[in-house]
Amino acid sequence: MDERLVTLFDEIRGYLKEICDKLGAIENKIDRAITVTERKERIAVFVDSQNLYYSVKAIYGGKVDYNKLLYKIRGDRILVKAISYVVHPPEGDVRPFVASLEKIGYEVRLKEIRIRGDGSAKANWDMGIALDILGILDKVDTVVLVSGDGDFVPLLSYIRDKGKTVEVYSFEASTAYDLRETADRYVPLDESVILDYR
């Protein structure tokens, strides 16, 4: 065989090997992309129970069915954590409510109402909610806030800047406009999450 043909075959063999290597690398990238796409979205849910309570009471005169709420939010996604922030009034027993939330799968954060010197009451979970969200941010794809409180707008902007998706669920009539606008996805709640609503 002519020496030039041998050289040509060697060159062709080299090109074919290079093409096969590149095709293999492309196939690996496609496989990784498919794996990421098929991976279910990981979510964490943060429920401002006091905000929700007053919204439902004003609009429907009822109470929230927290089981239906969580089911509606989760869908087929992976629930990493669900936390409900509860304020304990000076009178009344919240233990049955807390127990029912825990049974459904919520972690419960409980705060006593503080009475100030002037007689006014203070019980706000905004800072606690923010700290819990920031603490889990690297473990989830989506943060779900259940509240209509416009004070959360800067927090939601920060979360989005970190590349996470932000969803807000609330009753539209009692939700700050800028909160709805800041979320990647806003879902208005309705009577479908009200306890025994007919």
Automatic annotation (TrEMBL):
Indicate the segments forming the NYN domain, all copies. 42-190
A Gene Ontology molecular-function term? RNA nuclease activity
Record InterPro entries: LabA, NYN
Indicate what this protein is called per its UniProt record. Answer: NYN domain-containing protein
Instruction: List the taxonomic lineage.
Output: Bacteria, Bacteria division WOR-3
